Amino acid sequence: MENQALVIRQQDIDLIGTSLPDAYAQGVQSHDKCLAVGQQLLDEVQKIGMSDDLDQKIAKYINASKATVKKVNDLRSPATKLFDQFKKVFTTMEADIDPTKSGSIPNQLQAVRNQYAAKKLEEENRRRQEEARRQQHDRDLQQFRSDCEEELRRAFSLYLNNNVKRITEVFGKVSLANYSESERVIKNYPSELPDAWDQMLTSLVRQPITCTSEELGGVRSEVRASLMDQFKEDFRNRIEETRDDYGLRLSSKKTELEAIAKKEAEDAAEAERLKAEMKAREEAEAAAREAELRAKEEADRKAKEAQDAMNEMGSLFDEAKQSVSVYRPKTSVKKKINLLGKEGILPIIGLWVNDAISNPDVTTDDIAKEFKKQITFAEKLANDASSPVFVENEFVEYVNDVKAK
Q: What is the mean pLDDT of the chain?
């Protein structure tokens, strides 16, 4: 079916060609004559000034000018209506294919693209948020695992050191009177790590809120299970080494104690010197043992830190590999204001006015043009014959606009 809005008839084109020249000629004649008469009156005013008689002539001329305007309008009206029709035809064609015109097919397709782009952007943002949450969860869980392992290692180190100290203390307190009991305690000191060695340990590891209590409990159990074999081996080796070392030195210490006891009967001062010398030597040996243990623990700690750093780098690399490239149409995301109520316009106007007032390039006339509709409304209220309303402000004044009728 033919769209009548896009039809231009040949007879309309012919009409413009025949009527427009004559209409133009008559219009020019009326225009020139009206201006000539008006210029004569204007010259007379400038020459002799206004008078009652001249005011009446000018009033009559203005009425004639209005009639001339109507005559010229009537002359061009048929042609301009046709031109308007031609313009409407072309603007209709343009609007039908203009993506910016509401309702056009390109505009509908653009709207479909906009909706699709918004959907894809929302999906991408949601995916990123979910991925960020997942990565944060994994990092928190890994940090919790590392913290639990560090805490258990410190607790085990303290437990092992305390047991080594107990053996050292027993050896340090060996005397001729308790020698047999001390020998029995040292040589039979348990070297197996009890399964419940850490049952009194209260964990101080921070629990991340991104993980569930079940996850955290499982991680802690996994960490403990993964370390127990190593702890048992380290405990056994360290206790047996300490126990055997002190066990071998018991006989020589007994001999030394017997010599000191014999010396006490001969020279008490020399006996005290020998006691002090023996005690100092044993304390130095114990300190050396502890320093050696601390050095080993520090080396293990640095090795673990290096391994954690490598694991973290590997984790980041895995995350990068897991990043999936998905199609997302090119978009331009801009903020648009949606008024939720009429009152919402006030802060927006205030924002514009404050910016305009502070901008030296914006003049008072610029602001007046921007708010012409509002100024006209205020003028209408001021000219209300029954109940005029005026704006009272030091920057607003009312002036009389006088027109002759």
A: 85
Distance, CA of 174 to CA of 267 (rounded, Å): 22
Query: Can you give the pLDDT at residue 315?
Result: 55
Q: Quick check: pTM over 0.70?
A: no
**Cβ atoms of residues 305 and 313 within 8 Å:** no
CA distances from 297 to 94, 211, 229, 241 (A): 82, 30, 17, 17
DSSP state letter for 325: P
How many C-beta atoms lie closer than 10 Å to residue 231's C-beta? 20
d(CA 110, CA 103): 11
Q: Is residue 76 within 8 Å of 21, Cβ to Cβ?
A: no
Would you give the DSSP letter of residue 102?
T
Largest CA distance in the chain: 159
Q: What is the DSSP letter of 212?
A: -
Q: Confidence band (pLDDT; 50, 70, 90) for 397?
A: very high
Rounded Cα gap, residues 164 and 240, in angstroms = 10
Are 201 and 190 within 8 A, CB to CB?
no
Q: How confident is the model at residue 1 (pLDDT cuts 50, 70, 90)?
A: very low
Cα separation, 76 vs 182, in Å, equals 131
CB 339 within 8 A of CB 345: yes
The residue length of the chain stands at 405
Round to whole Å and give the CA distance between 357 and 367: 9
Nearest to 167 by CA among 315, 310, 285, 344: 285
Q: C-alpha angle with apex 124: 122 to 130, nearest 5 degrees?
A: 100
Question: How far, in whole angstroms, is CA 197 from its chain's centroid?
Answer: 47
Q: Sign of dihedral through CA atoms 347, 349, 354, 359?
A: positive
Alpha carbons 280 and 292: distance in angstroms, whole number: 18
